[in-house]
Design brief:
single chain, alpha/beta, Rossmann fold, 12 helices, 8 strands
Length: about 260
Amino acid sequence: MPTACRGGVDLYFSDVGSGPAVLLHTGGGGDGRMWELAGYLEALGGYRVLVHDHRGHGRSSKPLGLENHRLVEYVDDVLAVLDAAGEQRAALVGYSDGIDVVLAVGACCPDRVPALVGIGAVGAPDASPSERRAQAAHVRFVGMRAAIEEFARAEPDPPPQWLLENLSSTDTEMFALELEGWADSLGVWASLSDVTAPSLLVCGELEEPEAAVHLEAAASKLRHGRSVMVEGLGHLGVFWRAELVLPVLTSFLGEHLPAAS
């Protein structure tokens, strides 16, 4: 199994196909198998697809301690995976919390990122750090599976069982540490204006009350940004309803990083 090791943390990634490199990064729950089960890998023929199980998830190490779960650690992990794969440049696609990571990589290492895609709501620019800490406390209290089931009940369409199982497989403490570790980071909003790569933000209409307003505001801060709102989808739906998202994603990648013929 291909792995990168950084600071004593083993980072698993799968390596599929050939062509220009694309790295897929999941969010707070789940692991890289999500992308394959939802159909993303099949749709990305003509690319070398690196699917990253980020720290605390899937087959990667699960380090304890808040200091191991600051956003900068996740950013440096992505660079370590690219180095281990021998790729100087790769398009980055992040879902949910993965958006924060890929945008931060794009901001700090523009020469390594020819294109960026974020899938999911970006949240409010003035969100309080206490929100993530409260979420962490709740997850620790109810457990990961119950937290995911609560989240799924808020979706307009019932998510498939494979997605719920994959998300619920994440260790409760790992999810809580990620929530807490990023609480003081400005995340997406801190990176937007420094990202020089062509960037696409895809959001579900029903992910948050002001999803459209936040999406437009975020895209306007990107130097070369565009946004797509997908009607009728919540936060989980904008990932697993891949038939609605993949045409936009593959068209954007094809424009800025054409697949191998």
